[in-house]
Amino acid sequence: MSPIYYDLSEQFLSSGVKFKYYGIARTVMEVGYELARSSADVRFVVFSPAHDRFFEVDPNIGAASETGVCDPNIPAAAKPMRIRYSFPEPHPLRDAIYPLVRTVMKRICLSKWRRAVPEGSLREVDLSGQILVSLGRPKMMADYLVALDKQNIRPRFYPLIHDMIPLHEFAHPRQSMFARNFAHDNRIVISHAEKVMTNSRFTKAEIEEFSASGHLPDLPPVVPVPLPHELRETNETVDIDIPDTPYFLGVGVMTGRKNLECILQAMLHLHKTGRPVPLFVLAGAHRKRTVAYLDRPEVAPIKDKVRLLLNPNQASLRLLYQKARALIIPSHMEGFGLPLGEALWLGTPGLSATTPALCEVGGDLAEYFDPNDPTALAALIDKMHTDPAAYAAAKDKILRNHSSLRTWNNVATDIIATVSADSAKV
């Protein structure tokens, strides 16, 4: 079989270590770790906008990594400034000045690279005809695919797509620039793909639906490679104080699609009906709109029951899950839903919205509620908080079915199998 080149550009280009614990960057990191430990011929690359080329890297894994899992082993000082390589539609003024802007920024990026990366320490890789697997964001993949096209470099490309959520804005009269760019980037990714992988069966169905409606191009074969439930143990130091009192946990929950409103309204319902209101711990990045929502007068009766914990590392996140009474994930839409899987992996009950992707993750091990019905969530919180028998039964069911949960190794193995099936035909 030909070697697999695995793209770590998401980690190289992402903004700081704290974001590498969550979402897409986290997926790139975890699968990279498993591939580095596998027996398959896997090599690791990053795209440099300073050169418009890929370089092979020797990633740090395990305790040697800055995250305790995996990183591309390039000095942070080499991180380039990002500028888009293409746009969904022409714009005369922008298109006239953009080449000059790109030239200036490319020189800045090249200067940063030369200062941070010893000359000759990384080898340029010509990916023409080579297998390239990428789990990163579509905008990063689209940038380097456009750059490679200009050099007539065409890899055998295997992307994993995480969600189609921004495309749901296309039904609205006022389309956002983010949604247009997202659709544009995904068109580039799909049109270059030999096969498309998705993080869930739900995302596969979404891609097929948007292709049929004309928002995306005709599809190559689409293969679901569901993400796991596993939350890996690392050697990091726990960097937060865990509450002494029983608490419910939210990870990355915010207003809007993530539906923090439902949790707070459920807590207010408990307060108004005289039921005990438990502590709610919200872990994740700082969001101004979350803080603004918590400052609303109507939230005042339960605001002292909400505690924000900013950017816990992976060791801290594990302990937060383990000590929590239950995880609450109220999203209206997700592509997968890592926090629900991680809670179940650590034996913590999950209270989940009846969102298709979340139902796929939680199966019959989670408890479900309508994300538009805070009273239904309030009833589940009350049960987990005040009914010891119900809580014990939920914990026991998860424990008895732990062997059915997926691991990051399962994901890496499935990716290798997906690529190998095509490689054997060549």
Automatic annotation (TrEMBL):
InterPro entries named among the record's database cross-references: Glyco_trans_1
Entry superkingdom: Bacteria
KW Transferase (keyword) present: yes
Glycosyl transferase family domain segment(s): 244-393
GO MF: transferase activity
Keywords: Transferase
Record-given protein name: Glycosyl transferase, group 1
